[in-house]
Amino acid sequence: MTVRGLRWAVTDGPDGTAAVELPGDDAAARLLEEQARGGFWCAREAGGCGGRLEVAHGPLPSFRHTGDAPCAFVRRQDAAGAAYDPLRYRRPLVAWLTAQGSAPRIERAPWRDDHPGLHVVVAGVGVLEVQLAPLPDTAWRERDDRLRRGTPSVTWLYGPGADAAAATEAGVRGAALVLRRHDRGLLAGVRDDGGATRWMRLGACRLTVDGLDAPGLAEARARHTRRSAEREEAARRAGQAARRGRRAGTAPRPPGDEPLPFPFAG
Ligand SMILES: [Zn+2]
Asked: How many angstroms separate the alpha carbon of residue 16 from the centre of ligand 1?
């Protein structure tokens, strides 16, 4: 594996969130350099040092710190991609919520836990939990319970790294919301309990006090509820039929039934 060095930076200051990835080709890297007139910084919001970065040109261009402040990304350059990932979702998410008249607050710094993502609080409305890394089933349930104790409106949005967690929620609630970057914006998807996903621009969805209002979401949940009820009803009928059959002596005992005493004395 070729170690390319640091490839991530922000262009809007040490506390900025406008993340850019340096192209792998030097001519394209020069073009990006021309476009980013203000220069590049090592993003504090991604866990970096906030220092100035410059482009080290060559066949495999990379960013280089201009100072020698201690920085997590000097030794662990390969960690920058995952650390900058939440920033690339953050700007379009904040723009989407702001356009709805909300004032979102990003509460938890993404690099401080094992699950890179965003915890977005919209006062008076609810929270958005953006999950970008794999999350085991038990951890999903634990966090979901904890979040719901604090606010009734919790909306999970799952990035490409969190497909299994999306499947977990879809299995429990009939649908899950998935999120993908697309050009500079975001696409949202309603994934149903069968694994089918209906995609739309995030702008087609609204955050309400009841959670995200997305086309097709209520229908997917209703289908799940109806199918669950049908399955329960089918199981109930099968149980009744088995009991009737047993009384008539025509059906075998279902497993788990108490065995009859045998042989009968008489
Ligand atoms: Zn740095």
From this structure: 13
Q: Alpha-carbon distance 164 to 180, whole Å?
A: 15
Peptide bond into 263 cis (omega under 30): yes
At 130, phi and psi to the nearest 5? -95, 115
Other CB atoms within a 10 A radius of the CB of residue 146 amount to 10
DSSP category for residue 6: B
The low-confidence residues of the chain, meaning pLDDT below 50, are: 1, 110-112, 258-266
Identify which of 220, 184, 215 has the alpha carbon closest to the alpha carbon of residue 200. Answer: 215
Task: Give residue 67 CA to ligand 1 midpoint distance, Å.
Answer: 9
Interval between CA 73 and ligand 1 midpoint (Å): 6
- Expressed in angstroms and rounded, the spacing between residue 48 Cα and the centre of ligand 1 is 5
pLDDT (0 to 100) of residue 264: 44
The pair of three-digit structure tokens given for residue 1, joined into one six-digit string: 């594996």
| DSSP 8-state symbol, 122 | E
CA distance 51 to 43: 8
Tokens linked to 149 = 């104790």
Query: Any idea which residue has 């008539």 for tokens?
Result: 248
Spatial neighbors of 169 by CB under 8 A, at least 6 apart, are 140, 144, 156, 158, 175, 176
Could you give the CA distance from residue 232 to residue 238 in angstroms, rounded to a whole number?
Answer: 10
Q: What is the DSSP letter of 131?
A: E
Question: What pTM does this model have?
Answer: 0.79
DSSP result, 162-207: GHHHHHHHHHHHSEEEEEEEETTEEEEEEEETTS-EEEEEGGG-EE
Cα(9) to centroid(ligand 1), Å: 9
